[in-house]
Write a structure and sequence with these properties.
Length: about 450
């Protein structure tokens, strides 16, 4: 039985307890018509409770037979009152109370409460921010966990929706995916909903379908949980200048509407609390202290658990990685970020071409595994359309020449695991990559020789 349904059963029991007290008082004051009416209401409540339990647990559960006994008892009392066979109000009340206590104990001991948790990722490449939480829920015998990838739109420069995307077919084979059209949130009302997109309508590049905005999801669950899809470099909560630069991560709709927010560390938790308290007022500090949890990021769990021997490497990649003698070249993960592109524009494109020239000349010793941010194309189309033609030309030429690897797959962890070192922009991957202990080198856009 779901927790919400168990709460309904508890409410039915509370109604019966209050009704029994009213029956006793009405009988004591010889208001027999009211007494009979209340007994009829008791039987109706018991029947409704039995229907709910039978639907969720089946008719074999002991509580059903106890409810049937209770209904029989109420019927007998109802029939005996007009003939005045019952004379003692205390005795009447105790018989009803004894039967209800048996029902209450059976509900507690014979009916197991199950928790229903829904995970709502939107981009498959960001699934790692929820996966370890889902695995724990999936392994819990008293929990039903559903992974429901949700659709999202690219945005036009004016903010209107453009192309609709759905990536439900891109998740790992071991993740059972549920079609978002087949899950009725209004009817099922899951106990918990996890999201990793906090922006609602405030993102300039993409938007999840408006039904899945955090402000709307909050209507269908008792606990909405936001886990960031990104991971940041750790910073000192006392460094005011740096803290102010990340304010936009803290003041998004998902943080405000979620019941809990899980961030990567205690220091990051303190930063969220400080930023939000400053934004919303000192009297809100306790709210943020209760809401923000520094439990760690599932992205770190995923990157540390991914082993090279367990990943599937495309044959086309292996042809580029292997030397003629069968040994492997060094694989360098090259990451280009959205923020760097927006900041440097044409200069960023020149830098990419320069990096390609260097690695092309040294392709016998090292392989460039280029993994641009999953939203970089959508960002160009929405916010830098003047760069679209040149960027697409760079991508097509790189893929056509095939001396390096182009990775636009959803699995970022494969690239982290496969590579020997990181080179590229400052981004959330850097924090993850450092967890592996492998070398990290940041690119300088100004260096072109």
């Amino acid at each position: 039985m779901r927790k919400t349904q168990k709460n309904q059963v508890d409410q039915f029991i509370n109604l019966l307890e209050r009704a029994h007290g009213a029956v006793k008082r009405a009988f004591e004051t010889r208001n027999y018509d009211i007494t009979l009416n209340l007994l009829e209401q008791c039987q109706d409540i018991a029947i409704r409770m039995g229907g709910l339990i039978e639907t969720t647990e089946g008719e074999e559960v002991r509580t059903i037979s106890l409810l049937e006994d209770y209904c029989e008892l109420v019927y007998q009392i109802h029939e005996e009152i007009p003939g005045k066979q019952i004379k003692n109000a205390d005795k009447l009340y105790k018989s009803l109370r004894k039967s209800l206590i048996q029902i209450k104990n059976s509900v507690k001991n014979d009916i197991k409460v199950r928790t229903e948790i829904v995970f709502l990722p939107y981009k498959a490449s960001m699934w790692d921010s929820l996966e370890s939480i889902w695995k724990a829920a999936e392994e819990d015998p008293d929990c039903d966990a559903y992974v429901i990838p949700i659709p999202y739109y690219d945005k036009n420069p004016d903010g209107s929706f453009r192309e609709l995307h759905y990536e439900g077919d891109l998740y790992p084979e071991y993740v059972p995916v549920v079609d978002y059209n087949r899950y009725d949130f209004e009817k099922r009302r899951p106990d918990m909903i996890y999201i990793h997109n906090p922006y609602d309508d405030s993102n300039h590049v993409t938007s999840v379908h408006p039904f899945f905005y955090s402000i709307n999801l909050k209507k269908f669950t008792e606990r909405l949980v936001y886990v960031p899809y990104f991971i940041l470099n750790e910073i000192d909560p006392q460094n005011k200048e740096v803290v102010e630069s990340m304010q936009h991560f803290c003041t998004v709709p998902g943080v405000f509407y979620a019941d809990k927010v899980v961030v990567q560390s205690e220091d990051m938790r303190r930063i969220y609390i400080n930023v939000l308290t400053k934004e919303m007022g000192k009297n809100t500090k306790k709210t943020w202290e209760e809401k923000i949890l520094g439990l760690g990021s599932p992205k770190i769990d995923k990157v540390l658990s991914t082993k090279r021997e367990n990943i599937k490497i495309p044959e086309a990649w292996l042809k580029i990685i292997r030397k003629k003698n069968g040994s492997w070249k060094k694989v360098i993960l090259y990451n280009t970020s959205v923020s760097a592109l927006l900041k440097y524009e044409e200069k960023m494109l020149r830098k990419i071409r320069y990096v390609f020239d260097v690695f092309k000349q040294n392709q016998e010793e090292a392989v460039l595994l280029w993994r641009p941010h999953p939203l970089i194309k959508a960002t160009i189309d929405s916010m830098r359309p003047e760069l679209r033609q040149e960027y697409h030309k760079i991508v097509e030429q790189y893929r056509k020449e095939a001396w390096g690897i182009y990775d636009d797959s959803p699995d970022m962890n494969r690239a982290v695991c496969l590579s020997d070192a990181y080179y590229g922009d400052l981004s959330s991957i850097v924090r993850l990559y450092r967890e592996t202990g492998k070398p990290v080198m940041m690119q300088n856009i100004e260096v072109l020789k």
